[in-house]
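The protein record filed here:
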Amino acid sequence: MHDHAIGGPGPDVRRDEGGWISGPCLREPAEGGRRGRYYIEAEAEDRRLEDRLAAIRSREDAGTIATRQAADERIAVMEQHLAAVRELCKQHLEGRAR
């Protein structure tokens, strides 16, 4: 079943191998300037998040941290990521049509 069949994203939107939604509207900045800069910086934040989560997973798999500690660290990393993306929205998109 496609996401759009249940009220989700439309047919141009798909999931990558990690389960993240991707598609032209999410990857390509529609205009330059502040909005284009937002997309560039948001993608950098996404890569940082992936790297930090992979590092936590690696330490957990190696047995150097417990499952509970890994979960707590994942939560902290994801909260930091959300805060960073919200700040990017304020810097680059606030007050503009979205």
Summary: Residues 32-98 form one domain.
